[in-house]
Amino acid sequence: MSESAYKFTAFNGGPRLCLGKDFAYYQMKFAAASILYRYRVRVVEGHPVTPKLALTMYMRYGLKVNLFRRDEAERRKCLLKYYG
């Protein structure tokens, strides 16, 4: 069974499907991959991680994180781990 075209209301579905939907997904994946490659991401200690159920799911209290820059050696190690 394929995913519903109406999963994210911002993109609509049917004959009025957003033309930029695929580009938006690629851009989002590239941005997330770039951040994860360059930084270690850690949730702020003591911050509650609670999802809020709504039309689109988001975090009830936001998601506070700390970013720690990866040095070149750590980035290489990360690439080798996944691409051998």
What's the arrangement of secondary structure elements?
Blueprint: H1 21-38, E1 39-43, E2 51-52, E3 58-59, E4 65-69, H2 72-83
Antiparallel strand pairs: 1-4, 2-3
Essential attributes:
36% helix, alpha+beta, 4 strands, two-stranded antiparallel sheet, 84 residues, iron ion binding
Explain this structure to me?
This protein has 84 residues and is α+β, with helices and mostly antiparallel strands. It has one domain (9-83). 36% of the residues lie in helices and 17% in strands. It is built from 2 helices and 4 strands, in the order αββββα. The chain has helices spanning 21-38, 72-83, and strands spanning 39-43, 51-52, 58-59, 65-69. The strands form 2 sheets. The chain has a two-stranded antiparallel sheet with strand order 1-4. A two-stranded antiparallel sheet has the order 2-3. Strand 2 (51-52) and strand 3 (58-59) form a beta hairpin. The longest helix has 18 residues, at 21-38. It is flat. The two termini are 34 Å apart.
Question: In a few lines, what is going on in this structure?
Answer:
This protein is α+β, with helices and mostly antiparallel strands and 84 residues long. Helices cover 36% and strands 17% of the residues.
